[in-house]
TrEMBL record, chains A, B:
Reactions listed under catalytic activity: (R)-malate + NAD(+) = pyruvate + CO2 + NADH
Name used for this protein in its record: D-malate dehydrogenase (decarboxylating)
Cofactor(s), names only, from the UniProt record: Mg(2+); Mn(2+)
Keywords for the protein's UniProt record, in alphabetical order: Manganese, Metal-binding, NAD, Oxidoreductase
InterPro entries linked to this entry: ICDH/IPMDH (IPR050501), IsoCit/isopropylmalate_DH_CS (IPR019818), IsoPropMal-DH-like_dom (IPR024084), TTC_DH (IPR011829)
Organism superkingdom: Bacteria
GO MF term set: D-malate dehydrogenase (decarboxylating) (NAD+) activity; magnesium ion binding; NAD binding
Gene3D superfamilies the record matches: Isopropylmalate Dehydrogenase
Similarity comment text for this entry: Belongs to the isocitrate and isopropylmalate dehydrogenases family.
EC nos: 1.1.1.83
Organism listed in the record: Amycolatopsis saalfeldensis
Enzyme class: oxidoreductase
Claim: Manganese is one of the keywords in the record: yes
Length: 351, 351
């Protein structure tokens, strides 16, 4: 029997609420499909930060390195600046473990409706492949003339050939297993160093995949296309920032942020990958039992898929679809009155 | 009688098609409302670039400096890289003339439908105030280790206190004349130098406008809100890149890109301001008489407004509304069969 060691970091706010339910579902799937999940829980969070002065211990990365997967709730809490909470946990983990792919599949789940008029579920299914280790999210930069009227800030973006090539290649490989189409987000007309470089590498990689239809589109126009003609998008590859914006938009256009899972993937398997919902910690509704656990449950399915438990992963997705279709155990954001726990329990039963 | 000297730069592709119609409308408005427009046409374009090696002459900026307004079609043509065409004309003009405000009002025009389900016109009206002179669009940066496997690119963003403060202040002043609400696009959790600086200045400026409701939102979440809850947005202020993405998205969510005008404004009046459609040169449909001239006509109305001809500007907007409501003279993108010229003529008549 396969036994997987999973590091669970519920984090803050609704991260805690939804992780409990998702673990319940994952354990049920494991029991049914003949493997087991050994959970280790870590209290790394903004709460820890306010007490101990750091989101995680100094050797946090080392503590996680031997796990088979990392299951993250959400971090963020009022009073702790975002750039502290995220650069103290999420972003360093993504980088230390070379999770250079942020994979964000979206689809219109049954029983939910899109904000877009007259769109069918088939038209609203795509996956955002986001670069997750460099680009616009860089710690390089700083202030000059601080406090003076002529103060200014520099913020450096860093794009490496290795980093750009591997994410684009991943997108092409993925497209081969799906529609055979890749759309690259660019902005080479405005950002005249980074994006022409990105485009150049995109063209080079595309040349090696003559069977995949490759196109590029400026990120502003691509955002517009996502609401005007989403059916023509399938695999969308973008830089750290562009992938972030486009994946939130894609989630909003399909089922909403409560439904969107996300994998921070180290494709070589050398380091553990990390799975989380796209949504944040939503402190305003935390602990009230009303958070929608679907995104976190689906993030769990992505984790199982990554571990090779494909059948169990698919079973979870099917169970979620069934519960949403039945429509009796929906959380308030889905128009129901059920609690987080009831939705989680319903999915567990449907398994 | 007021006489305004206008520099017209039709540019490339449909820029030429729509500028002709917009000038017709503007001249009719001038005749009716007792002022005149003296047009000077400049052939600055990608076509010029392919012949003369530059989008505009060396003294291009000087040639335009004495005009009361600049009316720009669109630039861009296959074979001329975007970063050449835009950094050779549009972007230098925005900067030389300190057009630090890029104002992009959007609304759902009569007779058109939103891609969003069940939204009324009142819910779909907002204005994007985009920083237009610095930020992510910077020429600073370059390549290292060119052609080697360890090649990388740096791209610098530059945010100055002066630049950030003036655009945010502009947004607050504008909000006072509208809903009294300003939403600032940030991403301080990912971009840890530039955006915390932006947020800090936003808070400082907001303190001086206790009558305006100020909020900030990460750009990814804001893109999601634009499709999920557009009715809660009115004045949205963002950096050069964020404003660009959000304004295309806002245009797509309301009437579409064929309807969205844009003003590059120098608020002090020291230099001429420049007005254009948000859409590009669309070379694939250029010269066929099918381009929608509405965005360019509305850009003309913005120009008149800026020149102080408020009544004429409003008359043009009303005429556009009437023609769209009547619905007999619509271009193909609006579901009709009329030509660019017929739509332009219809608006002229409605005046
Ligand atoms: C053409 C391009 C440089 C431009 C921009 O991003 O500024 C365009 O998208 C716009 O919005 O005016
Ligand atoms: C929390 C934040 C740093 C993060 C990001 O932008 O990466 C989030 O928006 C996400 O998409 O995971």
């Amino acid at each position: 029997m396969n036994d997987y060691r999973i590091a669970s970091i519920p984090g803050d706010g609704i991260g805690v609420d939804v992780t409990v339910e998702a673990r319940k579902v994952l354990d049920a799937a494991a029991a049914k499909h003949g493997f087991s999940l050994a959970w280790n829980e870590f209290d790394w969070s903004c709460e820890r930060y306010t007490k101990a002065g750091a989101m995680m211990p100094d050797d946090g990365v080392d503590q996680l390195a031997a796990f088979d997967g990392i299951f993250l709730g959400a971090v963020g809490f009022p009073g702790v600046p975002d750039h502290v909470s995220l650069w103290g946990l999420l972003i360093p983990l993504r980088r230390a473990f070379q999770q250079y792919v942020n994979l964000r599949p979206v689809r219109l789940l049954p029983g939910t409706t899109s904000v877009l008029a007259g769109r069918s579920a088939e038209e609203l299914e795509m996956v955002i492949v986001r670069e997750n280790s460099e680009g616009e999210y860089s710690a390089i930069g700083g202030r000059h003339n601080t406090g003076r009227p002529d103060e200014f800030v520099l913020q450096e973006s860093v794009f490496t050939r290795v980093g750009v090539e591997r994410i684009i290649r991943y997108a092409f490989e993925l497209a081969r297993t799906r529609s055979g189409r890749v759309t690259s987000a660019t902005k080479s007309n405005g950002l005249i160093h980074s994006m022409p470089f990105w485009d150049e590498i995109f063209a080079e990689v595309a040349a090696g995949y003559p069977d995949v239809r490759a196109e590029q589109c400026h990120v502003d126009a691509l955002a517009a296309r996502m609401v005007q003609a989403p059916e023509r998008l399938d695999v969308v590859v973008g830089s750290n920032l562009f992938g972030d914006i486009l994946s939130d938009l894609a989630a909003a256009v399909t089922g909403g942020l409560g439904m969107a899972p996300s994998g921070n993937i180290n494709p070589s398997g050398e380091y553990p990958s990390m799975f989380e919902a796209v949504h944040g910690s939503a402190p305003d509704i935390a602990g009230q039992g009303i958070a929608n656990p679907v995104a976190q449950i689906l993030a769990g399915a992505m984790m199982l898929e990554h571990l090779g438990e494909t059948v169990a992963a698919q079973a979870i997705r099917t169970a979620v679809d069934e519960v949403l279709t039945a429509g009796t155990e929906l959380t308030p954001d889905l128009g129901g009155t059920a609690t987080t726990t009831r939705l989680g329990t319903a999915v567990t039963k449907a398994l």
